[in-house]
Amino acid sequence: MSPTTEQQWTPTHGEPYRPVPYRPARMPAAESLARAAALRETMGQRRTVRQFSPDPVPEQAVRDAVACAATAPSGAHQQPWTFVLVRDPEIRRRIREAAEHEERVSYDGRLGEEWLAALRPLGTDAVKSHLTDAPALIVVFQQRYWLAEDGTKHKHYYVDESVGIAVGMLLSALHQSGLAALVHTPSPMRFLREVLGRPVNEKAFAVIPVGYPAEGCEVPDLVRKSLEQVLVEL
Ligand SMILES: Cc1cc2nc3c(=O)[nH]c(=O)nc-3n(C[C@H](O)[C@H](O)[C@H](O)COP(=O)(O)O)c2cc1C
């Protein structure tokens, strides 16, 4: 498949260094503290949802969240990501069918006992109804390399890190817009490139159902590490 126009656009290829002024107004410390505390409280309420209502979500809020994700920093500013927003019920059905096929093999032994034991407290199994219940899926692809018009490949750097950061920002934006999400990583997920007709330089990273929690939705009772456990101050 030939690369699309936007894949050929990579701003740092061949550009000279061209600085522009950056002078954001400095926020007063009191406002920083208030905003940080409020955001900590808001983000503390985010949970992964696996039981979705089929109710539609405000579509522009999802697009805005993707636009937020696309402001993420990336290795050499190569922005090695594609977000495919799938609302079409037939495509979601096909994704679910293929994902459940892989998940059945995984849960029937491919994962190994240690991995299965790690998953047990989450209560997950091979049934992935969120893929058809949630009104939208955002399928995130990594662009492992950039394909020039003449077909030559140009390596992208720090693709895993860059896309991981972008997905973190996406989840944050969705949550702050009042939408629930799940990072679903069926393994292997090669089928996603085929089902969604993506080019060869793209590799699926995650499927993110987006919507509202179903009535009666439950989540596992998990404990987060405390700040003291995760922060080392020297
Ligand atoms: C990289 C990654 C992969 C994940 N894969 C799956 C998955 O395939 N299926 C699933 O149900 N949850 C998946 N999760 C969600 C985690 O299980 C969830 O974030 C974790 O249990 C913490 O719960 P919380 O998000 O509610 O805080 C994944 C999360 C991450 C970050």
Automatic annotation (TrEMBL):
Keywords: Flavoprotein, FMN, Oxidoreductase
Protein name according to UniProt: Nitroreductase family protein
Keyword Flavoprotein appears in the UniProt entry: yes
Pfam families per the UniProt record, alphabetical: Nitroreductase
Alphabetized PANTHER family for the sequence: IODOTYROSINE DEIODINASE 1 (PTHR23026:SF90), NADPH NITROREDUCTASE (PTHR23026)
Gene3D superfamilies per record: NADH Oxidase
InterPro entries to which the protein is assigned, alphabetical: Nitroreductase, Nitroreductase-like, Nitroreductase/BluB
